[in-house]
Structure formats: structure tokens, C-alpha cells
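Deliverable D4.2, example record:
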Amino acid sequence: MSLLGWRQWAVDREGLLRPAWTPWSPFPPGMLLWRPDGITQAHCLRTARPDPGAPTGPPTASHDRVPGEHCLCGLYAWRTPDILAAARLPRWSSLPCVVGVVRLGGRIIIGARGYRAERGYPVAILDRDGVVASEYTVARYRTFRALAAEWTPPAAEPQGDPPTTG
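Output generated by the structure prediction step:
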């Protein structure tokens, strides 16, 4: 199964797409990157605490599938451009933010306002200032109206502009 979702990204200094709502500093550099060269795989950032008496080894996820049913892991996206447009801006970063459309696949947990998915990749981006790296082979738009008109089913016309920073 695959679905289209709507989301925000923070754009790092190299023009790469990163989660807008998750600070990335404590994680390995590539872990929270939306890959420009292929499919992004979700990781669970919550790990089981190792048993003090067990041999040392890497911590393991507290569930065997990502996203976990009772966890917060997964690649997030909103269901509609209206929900995205109503979302507030992330406050942890002063980096520019962009919005766009993603194709989600693998295991997908459907929520009231959005999705959590196992895998995904961006397919279209509102990049008014040209800050997103050219390595992303996505449709690029200068206006939210044009982005939404092309990627929204006719029954769900968008109402407002999404929050972005520059």
C-alpha cells in the first residue's frame, strides 16, 4: 500500500531535508535524513534498556516493526494540505523550512490527522527560495496553491497557506 501525505522539513546547510519537529543533534548524521537518492527508512529512536547482567551489545528497539503500534516512531505526514496549512512552525530550529508531498509505503499507521509510515520519499516540494539541494528529483513549486492543485484530489481543495520560515 502507498499513500500521499503532506509534511514540513527543515533544510540543513547542504540543502538536505531533515525532520522539522525532531532535533537531530544526538543522532548519527544520516539517521534522520530524508534521502535524496532513494527511499527513506524509518527508525525507532526509543530503545530497550539493556539487561545489566546481559553481555554488552547495541540497544534494541522495544518492538519488532516500525512504526510500532504503541510507539511514536515512523515517518510522519499529515493527511491533507489543509491540516498542513493549519500546523504551527517548529520552534527548535532557525533553519529554513519547506513543505511538500511524500509517498509513504510499507507499514502505515493511520491516525485522525495523519500517518506514520515505515518508508517514504518526497515527490513534490514548495521551495520558494531554492534552498533544497538539486539532488532531490522532485517536482518543485513556487506557490502553495500550485503544489496543492496538482497533488490534492479534487474533493479536498486546500484553504490556506502552510507555515514556512525563510
